[in-house]
């Protein structure tokens, strides 16, 4: 485990220091202009996401987590700094970065599971009709929903809906999946089930995930690495490895120790920042 008090991070959890990051965020200052105010959402935030990372952005409400995700998605560029995917500057939305939406209710109830998964491929015209169908079937097989292609979303459990939403994103072959507090509105048991579903799928498929949450426990369970942001405007407080933790070992003292450490970073007084990570 490792806490680094600088603003930019580059060491992957697996120690493959020579590997190029998939996503590089450098000194990203992101602002919103309203008629009355200029709001600085994040200030000089930097981090690297490597292939197959489950990278979690954790921080208090209003620290700019969603804003960072929107910027990575290409919807709101930083005013300063840069964001690159596979070394190329992010200049707008693209199918290399697919958002899996909150609560998965974006599935269209009048379309079957297969038609839902086909939809982004149809809209973007990225693939021919036949290839789109092949891709949709293959993505549904990957998430173990091959037998449910012709049913409608209301006939699925919450976990199955989430898997459809993930299949829909994966069918576009993105470099990275973006999830913004996807389980925030769920009860504790369902939330835990969903978290385990994501982890099982990740084990099977090995996608790269950028995940936003304000729950410390969720960050530890989902994340292989966790970026901790300060309150508004979001600045990097630390990056911690968490790849060895899951619900199965949440009673371990090491899990509790990491949780405590994260608490410390989250609630740290600004004046103590110089000692962060030591
Ligand atoms: N469209 C907008 N116009 C103006 N200010 C905005 C806009 N969206 C967000 N903000 C401001 O930017 C800051 C960061 O917001 P953001 O939603 O990214 O935070 P967050 O960490 O995701 O919060 P939460 O955990 O509550 O979702 C906040 O001060 C917020 O008020």
UniProtKB/TrEMBL annotation:
GO terms for MF: ATP binding; ATP hydrolysis activity
Domain ABC transporter: 23-258
Record keywords, A-Z: ATP-binding, Nucleotide-binding, Transport
Annotated SUPFAM superfamilies: P-loop containing nucleoside triphosphate hydrolases
InterPro entries: AAA+_ATPase (IPR003593), ABC_transporter-like_ATP-bd (IPR003439), ABC_transporter-like_CS (IPR017871), ABC_transporter_ATP-bind (IPR050166), P-loop_NTPase (IPR027417)
Keyword Methyltransferase attached: no
Domain of life (superkingdom): Bacteria
Pfam family, one: ABC_tran
Family: Belongs to the ABC transporter superfamily.
Protein name, as recorded: ABC transporter ATP-binding protein
Organism of derivation: Aureimonas fodinaquatilis
């Amino acid at each position: 485990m490792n806490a680094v008090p600088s603003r930019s991070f580059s060491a992957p959890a697996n120690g493959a220091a020579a590997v190029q990051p998939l996503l590089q965020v450098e000194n990203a200052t992101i602002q919103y202009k309203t008629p009355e105010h200029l709001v600085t959402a994040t200030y000089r935030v930097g981090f690297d996401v490597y292939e197959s990372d489950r990278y979690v952005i954790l921080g208090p409400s209003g620290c700019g987590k969603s804003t960072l995700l929107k910027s990575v998605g290409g919807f709101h560029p930083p005013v300063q700094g840069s964001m690159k995917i596979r070394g190329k500057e992010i200049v707008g939305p693209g199918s290399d970065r697919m958002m899996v939406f909150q609560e998965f209710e974006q599935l269209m109830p009048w379309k079957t599971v297969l038609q839902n998964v086909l939809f982004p491929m149809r809209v973007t015209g990225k693939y021919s009709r036949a290839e789109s169908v092949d891709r949709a079937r293959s993505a549904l097989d990957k998430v173990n929903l091959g037998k449910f292609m012709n049913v409608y979303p209301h006939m699925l459990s919450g976990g199955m809906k989430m898997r459809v939403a993930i299949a829909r994103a994966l069918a576009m072959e993105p470099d990275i999946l973006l999830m913004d507090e996807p389980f925030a509105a769920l009860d504790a048991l369902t939330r835990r089930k969903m978290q385990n579903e994501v982890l099982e799928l990740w084990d099977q498929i090995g996608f790269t995930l950028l995940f936003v949450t304000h729950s410390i426990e969720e960050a530890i369970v989902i994340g292989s690495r966790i970026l901790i942001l300060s309150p508004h405007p979001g600045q990097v407080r630390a990056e911690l490895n968490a790849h060895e933790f899951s619900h199965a070992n949440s009673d371990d003292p090491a899990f509790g120790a990491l949780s405590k450490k994260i608490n410390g970073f989250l609630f740290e007084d600004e004046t103590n920042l110089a000692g962060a990570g030591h």
